[in-house]
Write a structure and sequence with these properties.
Layout: H1 3-22, E1 29-33, H2 37-49, E2 53-57, H3 60-66, E3 74-77, H4 86-95, E4 104-108, H5 113-121, E5 126-129, H6 134-152
Parallel strand pairs: 1-2, 1-3, 3-4, 4-5
Helix pairs in contact: 1-6, 3-4
């Protein structure tokens, strides 16, 4: 790859981030389900900065309880958690006709290409590997939310 091409891609990514930062009002409701407090804090902080209403849960069981009262725009779901893992919560959400329209993004430390392929093949709407790139985080979520909205229309 020519040197200028990499710099151009970096500038485009930076410009997108600046545009996103300038337009903070995302008006999303997001449920983050993750058993690592640091991940919850970082994701919640970034999302709230961009105008999202954020709910959190430490495992799938708690996440399902939140879904009894809240219908989020998108769910960010860790795969490996105690009590109830992300796979189980994902399956239960997809089996529920009142919830199965909600886009679900796997946010996981599984970073192998085969893991990503398995997660997407299972029906997740997106995949973000941890630790996530804060400059790309909102862009990735927005892509999934926009695709889901187009699919509904």
């Amino acid at each position: 790859m020519p040197l200028g091409e990499g710099r151009q891609r970096s500038l485009t990514k930076e410009r997108k981030w600046q545009e996103m930062s300038g337009n903070a009002d995302k008006n999303w409701t997001v449920l983050i389900v993750d058993d690592t407090m640091d991940n919850l804090i970082v994701a919640k902080t970034v999302l709230k900065f961009h105008g999202a209403t954020v709910y959190t849960a430490m495992n799938g069981e708690e996440g399902l309880k939140v879904l009894q009262d809240v219908t989020p725009t998108v769910i960010l779901l860790d795969i490996r958690m105690p009590t109830m893992d992300g796979w189980t919560m994902f399956r239960l959400v997809r089996e529920n006709p009142a919830l199965n329209h909600i886009p679900i993004i796997a946010v996981t430390a599984y970073a192998m290409l085969s893991d990503r392929e398995e997660i997407l093949a299972a029906g997740f709407d997106g995949y973000i590997s941890k630790p996530f790139d804060i400059s790309q985080f909102i862009i990735d979520i927005e892509d999934v939310v926009n695709r889901a909205a187009q699919h509904r229309n």
